[in-house]
Design a protein that fits this description.
The complex is a heterodimer of chains A (about 600) and B (about 350). Chain A has about 600 residues and is mainly beta. Helix content of chain A is about 10%, strand content about 55%. Helix content of chain B is about 10%, strand content about 50%. In chain B, a hairpin with a 2-residue loop joins strand 24 and strand 25 (about 315-320). The chains are: A mainly beta (about 600), B mainly beta (about 350). The interface of A and B includes residues 251, 252, 414 and 546 of A.
Chain lengths: ~600, ~350
């Protein structure tokens, strides 16, 4: 392995001498973004960016933002409660959540709870359906969701404050500050939400008892030019949350769950055309405590600490060809109730190549990992984009991705199975992108074959154990569309998304549970002088709740409307009023987990 | 294509019409029509956290009627049905997560009453004299708050709680005494609590093997099958059977099962013979000699043995689907291991009861 590495280094150095270089736009990305790979290594795939306006308008919880802005399906145990995503028909642990380039899925569950991410401290949230394990690691099977902070050196000072009140005693407050000169950019963000969350269950005498929650997220990012070509970046995020887990319609609950996550990342970037060198050190801490009865002191817990060392050497052969060689080491230690000690060492080596000509873009990448617990498959990603005409381009992508067994899967004392192998998937997709002056339209078709699927099933002796058992075939279509018109000289914007997903157990031919065939979203925005009006809606199709497909939950259509009024231009001040669940629909995305009916949200925003 | 659609539409209108006609002139069903007088009651525990527990009924002709509690009472049964106690005309259906007991007439399945107080993680019920006794884990993570709740059989009012050792599970009666197997709940225990039904207090505790999971009373003896601590426990322990003399409430004899054979469960008795299972193997034993080394037969068809009940020389295995989500099956065997019948029932069947 190290010999190969040396050979590659030598090769890169050798080719380096042969060419002169030109400055490239690439460096701008290297400087401003944390997750440069999302920009540069998504050939043949679709990336949807969700901007500040949509983030501000949504709940400060990631589920609320994404369910109206993506064709992904979310399973929620009630408002603010445990939430997971199904992207392209995959399971909860088959979507990777990536914070500034780092995969933050839990070591215990393999998934990120989408209601434990406070969105208001991030500059951008991006979605990329499709495989991504070469760059983003385990779980990037169905897709990846990116939480990002970016930098600027414009010498500006910006402050933004949001204060909101919503139904069911829900309060939110957030502050973001952005301070820069030509050398340094400091950004701070703090956001918090708390809620009694005692909404009534529609058509029932019950309400959402024991659903109160709060969370706070603190974010600091610093970019500082150490010297002319040396840039230091630091990202820090701290999240703390407490949630009472509400029961179901029939089951009262008195439980409470505490989350504490701290993520720190430091990166030293050295930019010497045609080279880019990036050294990253990251340290992640994940802690939870679960009180089945919040009134007493008995709890179960889990702690995991992750250290990541990553070196990325990039070389731009010429404006058309670029190489990256990445070597990384990840050390994870965990402990918890039901888990004595769990640790994992992973060494990874990746090679990335990007090429482009006038109409063609292509990339090829490979990654091999060496892990202490099991054998990892060779991961690859191949992508091509071709712009036939200005309005139409074709995109192809083929990748192999994986999901490693979690600490719970491997080390859980009653059933953990240390002989598990990673889940493997091969995914192919074809994207058709149409770009018009007033909008764009994207049609993706995908096919995915997942084998070695890890499932907990009772063994012969009755003990539940995870085994590599099932094989699944997912295929479907996705549509992303946006359009903008001028109506009475004011912009009217539409956005829509739709996904048709088959997620088929290869043995029985049945649709996997909790994965709808249909999911659609539609959003409209209109601006009229000091007023902004929006309508956002989604349709979640029927989902099966049993693997024999005998039981299901009905589909539903949900809509919100909102009005935003500019109180003053300087300082910029807005007041927003929203009606959520406009049609007062009784709905649930998980069985017996009733979601709120019609309710209200207000938000005051001050930019200064 | 279009014609077909039209036809379907026409059909459905016709059917709907005929339905509403039926509703207009209801047939008078007598109140005490004993629809379920003779057959097999199957308890389907449903999914944890969902109100989809149900009762299926297998008639003598082999037809299965699903969700009979809902049919008769137009109510969901509840969340996670654990067990049924049949007593005279009554069936006490213990709902573990709903923390309630639905009491119905066992032959009509019409609701008689609901007990929904003083229950916390209820497991099994037993009746002695004028009282109903229900084992409760209490807060599953608290090892100190386990109890047996006592209710009056006439009006189902709460009488008192009797604190017991951790994880009370099965409960049996003999005379005016009750025997509670404290299996351990989320942990492991090895105690039988003896409750005196006249004073409603624990008279004695008897130490048996680890994890007493099933009991039968034959003559003047209580046989307790102890499953042993599983492989993931700090120290794995072997299964054993303890024979307790009911006149002295002391362990008279213990038989051990080789640890390598696996962990035994489901001790049952039928015409003088004892039966138990290890994984999918069924063992027969006479209650006196050494325990058999070889099994009598094995049951290959069920995805898992979630319920194991013997009535009239027939063994009924309740088997959920392999992932515990959809409709399970009940497999009926003779006591030589020949599969006689298979019935599709509700979600996660865990036991059958004879009517």
């Amino acid at each position: 392995m190290s010999k190969n590495l040396q050979a590659l280094f030598l090769f890169l150095i050798w080719v380096g001498f042969g060419y002169s270089q030109t400055d490239s736009i690439r460096y701008l990305n290297e400087i401003h973004l944390a997750d440069v790979k999302l920009q540069n290594n998504s050939t043949g795939q679709f990336v949807q960016d969700i901007s500040g306006e949509s983030i501000e308008r949504a709940e400060p919880l990631l589920t609320g933002l994404l369910k109206f802005n993506s064709p992904f399906f979310f399973r929620e145990n009630g408002y603010g409660m445990v939430s997971s995503a199904s992207v392209r028909g995959t399971g909860a642990a088959q979507t990777a959540v990536v914070w500034n380039g780092i995969n933050i899925n839990s070591q215990f569950t393999g998934q990120t709870d989408f209601n434990t991410v406070n969105t208001m401290v991030f500059d951008e949230v991006s979605l990329r359906p499709g495989g991504g394990s070469v760059v983003y690691g385990s779980g990037a099977i169905g897709g990846t969701i990116h939480l990002s902070n970016d930098f600027q050196f414009k010498g500006k000072t910006e402050n933004s404050l949001d204060i909101g009140y919503s139904s069911f005693d829900t309060y939110q407050v957030s502050y973001r500050g952005d301070f820069s000169n030509e050398q340094t950019n400091l950004k701070v963000g703090v956001s918090s939400i708390s809620s009694e969350n005692d909404y009534p269950y529609k058509n029932s005498r019950f309400k959402n008892e024991n659903g109160d929650f709060y969370n706070i997220s603190l974010n600091t990012t610093i970019a500082h030019w150490l010297a002319e070509k040396h840039l230091l970046k630091f990202y820090s995020n701290y999240y703390q949350g407490s949630r009472a887990f509400s029961g179901t319609v029939t089951t009262p609950s008195n439980s409470e769950y505490f989350d504490r996550n701290s993520r720190n990342l430091i990166e030293w970037k050295y930019l010497e055309n045609p080279w880019t060198s990036s050294l990253k050190l990251a340290y992640l801490i994940e802690k939870f405590q679960y009180f089945e009865n919040r009134d007493n002191d008995n709890f179960t817990f889990g702690n995991a600490n992750t250290a990541i060392f990553k070196y990325d050497l990039g070389y731009e052969l010429n404006s058309a060809n670029e190489f990256h060689l990445i070597a990384d080491q990840t050390i994870i230690k965990g402990e918890g109730s039901g888990i004595n000690t769990a640790h994992r060492n992973t060494t990874g080596l990746a090679f990335l190549y990007n090429g482009r000509s006038e109409k063609l873009k292509y990339e090829a990448s490979l990654r091999q990992e060496f892990t202490s617990n099991f054998e990892s498959p060779l991961l690859f990603n191949l992508g091509v984009s071709y712009g036939f005409i200005e309005t139409y381009s074709l995109h192809l992508n083929l990748s192999r991705n994986y999901r490693i067994p979690t600490f719970n899967d491997l080390f859980w004392t009653s059933g953990g199975n240390e002989n598990l192998n990673p889940e493997k998937s091969i995914q192919a997709e074809i994207g058709n992108a149409f770009k018009f002056q007033k909008g764009s339209f994207r049609l993706n078709a995908f096919y995915m074959d997942i084998s070695n699927l890890i499932r907990w099933t009772p063994s012969e002796s009755g003990i539940w154990q995870p085994v590599n058992t099932a094989e699944v075939r997912n295929y479907g279509l996705e549509i992303y569309a946006d359009w903008q018109e001028q109506v009475f000289k004011n912009p009217l914007q539409f956005q829509a998304g739709y996904a048709y997903t088959r997620s088929e157990d290869q043995r029985s031919g049945n649709q996997l549970i909790y994965t709808p065939f249909h999911k659609a979203t539609f959003t409209a925005d209109y601006e009229l002088e000091k007023f902004q009006f929006f309508y956002q809606s989604l349709y979640n199709g029927e989902i099966f709740t049993s693997s024999d497909n005998n039981y299901s939950l009905q589909g539903y259509y949900l809509a919100d409307i909102g009005l935003k009024y500019q109180i003053s231009a300087k300082p910029e001040m807005h007041l927003q009023f929203q009606i959520k669940n406009l049609f007062d629909k009784k709905y649930e995305s998980m069985p017996s987990r009733i979601m709120p009916g019609r309710h209200f949200k207000t938000l005051l925003t001050l930019n200064f | 294509m279009k014609k077909n659609h039209l036809l379907i539409l026409l059909f459905s209108i016709l059917i709907l019409n005929s339905c509403s006609k039926d509703d207009d002139s209801p047939i008078d069903i007598p109140e005490e029509n004993a629809t379920y007088e003779s057959g097999i009651i199957v308890l389907n525990e449903g999914n944890f956290g969902s109100p989809n527990a149900s009762v299926s009924f297998i008639g003598t002709d082999g037809t299965v009627q699903p969700s009979i509690f809902k049919t008769e009472n137009e109510l969901d049964l509840g969340d996670t049905a654990q067990s049924i106690k049949l007593y005279e005309d009554l069936a006490f259906i213990v709902l573990n997560v709903s923390n309630k007991i639905e009491i119905v007439n066992r032959y009509t399945f019409k609701s008689v009453a609901t007990i929904d107080t003083n229950l916390k993680n209820p497991r099994y019920a037993e009746v002695v004299g004028n009282s109903v006794y229900v084992t409760n884990w209490g807060d599953a993570m608290d090892s100190e708050d386990d109890y047996v709740a006592v209710f009056n059989l006439d009006d189902f009012q709460f009488v008192k709680t009797i604190p017991v050792e951790e994880g009370p599970e099965k409960i049996l009666t003999n005379g005016d005494k009750l025997y509670v197997a404290n299996q351990g709940g989320y942990s492991f225990n090895h105690i039988i609590s003896v409750i005196n039904a006249s004073s409603n207090s624990v008279a004695k505790t008897i130490e048996v093997g680890d994890v007493p999971n099933s009991m039968v009373i034959v003559g003047e003896s209580l046989y307790v099958l102890n499953g042993g601590k599983p492989s993931y426990a700090e120290t794995e322990t072997a299964s054993s059977i303890s024979k307790i003399d009911l006149s002295t409430d002391t362990v008279e004899k213990t038989w051990s099962i080789d640890l390598n054979a696996g962990h035994a469960a489901n001790l049952s008795e039928n015409s003088g013979s004892f039966y138990y299972s290890i994984a999918s193997e069924v063992y027969e034993w006479d209650g006196e000699a050494d325990l058999p080394v070889a099994s009598s037969f094995s049951v290959e068809e069920p995805a898992s043995i979630y319920g194991f009940d013997i009535y009239n020389e027939n063994l009924y295995i309740s088997s959920p689907t392999s992932d515990f989500t959809g409709n399970g099956d009940v497999y009926q065997y003779d006591l030589s291991g020949n599969l006689l019948n298979q019935y599709s029932v509700g979600i996660n069947p865990n036991g059958v009861y004879l009517n």
